[in-house]
Predict the structure.
Amino acid sequence: MGWFTRKKAAVEEKPDLWTVCPACKAHVYKEEWQAALKVCPQCNYHERLACTERLALLADEDSFMEFDADIRPADPLKFSDAKGPYADKAQQTVEKLKLNESILTGGCKMNGRSVVLGIMDFRFLGGSLASGTGEKIFLAADYALRHKLPFIIFSASGGARMHEGILSLMQMAKTCAAIARLNEDGIPYISVMTDPTTGGVSASFAMVGDINIAEPKALIGFAGRRVIEQTIKQKLPDDFQTAEYLQEHGFVDHIVNRAEMKDFLCRVLRYWKEN
Amino acid sequence: MDLEFEKSLVELEQQMSELEGGSDNNQQLNSQVTQLKRKINSMRKKLYADLTPWQTVQVARHPERPVLRDYIEGVFSEFIELHGDRAFGDDKGIIGGFASIGRQRVMLIGHQKGKTTEENIACNFGMGNPDGYRKALRLMKLAEKYNLPVVSFIDTPGAYPGLEAEARGQAEAIARNLTEMARLEVPVVVLVTGEGGSGGALGIGVGNVVLMLSHAVYSVISPEGCASILWRDGSKAPEAAAALKITADALLELGVIDGIIEEPVGGAHRDHAATFDAVKTEISQQLARLKKMSARRLVEQRFKKFAMLGKFDNRKYAVHR
């Protein structure tokens, strides 16, 4: 019996060196996974990133200046569900993530070029679009407009935040209104859709980029897979609502690997000449 | 069709019709009937003045509630339907065309629900496809060219969740409408007549004025959908309906809508004609008011209205330029 106990103990002491790819289940060395920017070397699955991790891949060193960091969720409906009040849930999320809303916004330089960035964070209540998210996008777009700077949003969201009810829905109109003003003034707006970009976010600012970019294999779509299957009572194709599917159907300009994203964005922006 | 919560009234109404059916035309009976009628009326008035959010949802979805076709007949003196999105086809869930209301000529767009199952299947229960949203946008752009105000009637469970709808870009179609409607240079009057179902509603809902009928609802997600996600139990829809704040009163308080059109006692389905009168009067007044605004002011006013929506902590509304 002693033989078994010893072996078990040995396994427990062994540090966890492996990451299992959520897509293809391949075992990859953690170090290798990190070095590949959390992209699976086997199947090119792009793991979801925290907004700060994403920022580090985009902004030139020490160039980022955050906007409106103090905007955080209120509880306009005094919403409470089976798991308790929204106010508590929001508070816990803010404390746990050290992040005040589902998007990080600010100005920075990319290869020396000034841009305004919005980076959503799926960890924050599913990256849901709520009043604070909409306001931050609105204000960032307003900054881009006033300073004639390109605006880039990285989306990662399940959609509108139910806990803020209709006010969340209205953020779709509010953010699109902000983008409309950029269009009018000829300010570039580039949308980068990462895993996942669905519901009210796909049906608003994420889909109306001058250029729509996606990360490989990202889930992008309006309605949920299950809802569609229940409605039409048939099985959906495996590649349904993937970045590749959207490109095939004409809604994504380019699928870009994480490692090349920054340079790609800069290459594209060279084609905009500020008047 | 009577709704579950009207049961007590139904019994009284049966009593009344039994009394009325009696061949004796005596005075005592007549006064009894009159009394009963009065009682039923006042009970109904009380009941409808204090509907729970979930009861309101049922009224908003009532099968006899006026649908777009009825409003076209009852409110507008002319309607010339314009078909197709010029790219794929002609959606039946969202329709539109030139219309006259009193002396005012407008571009009318709206969700089309049916009255029978067959009709509803034909128009997809008022659930728009991408081609429907794109047709609506085409007509709004035409309205801009002809300097016509846009009147938009909303009544949909939501945008259609289907394979083809996704393949043709449901998300893009709605997003494009939100973006373009924000800068439309003509007045836009929006009226939620029944169900304001999420993005499918908002996709033709960016107005200078957004109105609701008093028993309509407008929500980010259906109460059933919300209940099954946040309560993990679809039968908790009444709780979700209350939590989501989807009634006209609640939305007026949140600043999401600008006005409420009162329905006749017992709901729009009980008195179509009175509903049409109220709708016609209110829309005509709004159009007359908005007509005086310049294109630039209309865009600015609509932009500011949506820019101000939302409530968050640690900062008062920023000053929007």
Q: What stands out?
A: The beta strands of chain B are 78-81, 94-101, 104-111, 150-156, 188-197, 209-213, 217-219, 259-261, 312-313. Chain B touches chain A through 61 residues (CB under 8 Å). Chain B has a mean pLDDT of 94.
